[in-house]
Design a protein that fits this description.
The chain has 101 residues and is of the alpha+beta class. It contains one helix and four strands, in the order αββββ. The chain has a four-stranded antiparallel β-sheet, with helices on one face.
């Protein structure tokens, strides 16, 4: 019984942490949008919008082309939660831009 309760809390708190990161990511997405509106192009890096980029994250940014980008954070070893600007959605699946499936 204690094991089941422990697993439940681990999953719940893990999911809660992910939701917090998504909310933080939404603020970064807004900064990217503001930068794009003001400058007419996407930032080259998170540093352009005042966010220090570190090797350990927590957020990573990849510009795909002049209008599309991906923002992501790690959810575990080899796993991430990814925001795709072309669909404006968060997704666990790793894909390229324009691959909606």
């Amino acid at each position: 019984m204690i094991f089941v309760i422990s697993v439940f809390f681990l999953l719940w708190f893990g999911n809660f942490g992910e939701k917090v990161k998504i909310r933080e990511g939404e603020k970064i997405i807004e900064k990217i949008s503001d930068y794009n509106t003001k400058n007419g192009h996407l930032p080259n890096s998170l540093k352009d919008i005042g966010i220090e980029e570190r090797l350990e994250g927590p957020f990573f940014y990849t510009q795909w082309d002049s209008v599309n980008y991906m923002l992501y954070f790690s959810t575990g070893v080899g796993e991430s939660m990814n925001y795709y600007s072309d669909t404006k959605e968060w997704d666990y699946r790793l894909r390229g831009m324009g691959e909606y499936k």
